Amino acid sequence: MAAEEQFITLATKKDDLGQIKIAPQVIEVIAGIAAIQVEGVNRMQGNLSTSVKGLFGRKERTQGVKLVLGDHGDLDIDVYVYFDYGVSVPKVALQIQEQVRQQIFVMTDLHAQAVNVHVEGIVPERTPKVDTDSLFNSDSDGEDREN
């Protein structure tokens, strides 16, 4: 059953106060923020919709996260990420799993049965920044100078 079809009801200690229900998108946001904070993660996987929203300044926090709620309340989270070049893929993936599982538990008291990390790609090193001070600082002889 897809997570979008239902809310997730939290178990409460006092039933007389009512129920607490969480939209699946909330859990996806928590997982996405937890994953992007891991060192070595460059970005989450997006799609055309999230790219267009990003152009207009709206950040889509659920991008790169898919939540599946099983019939018995099992919570499976799939995280789709791009890593920085040069990182240890197994170490960073394990950190993502631990961070996502911990944040979901701390914030919602839910246990994620599985956190599956899908490495969609490696982002190559960025080109070095141009030193603008030396770019315009020229000592050529043909230059006009005012005194």
From TrEMBL:
Source taxon at top rank: Bacteria
Residues spanning the membrane: none
Signal peptide location: none
Record organism: Fructilactobacillus hinvesii
Designated name of the protein: Asp23/Gls24 family envelope stress response protein
InterPro entries linked to this entry: Asp23 (IPR005531)
Family: Belongs to the asp23 family.
Region (Disordered): 128-147
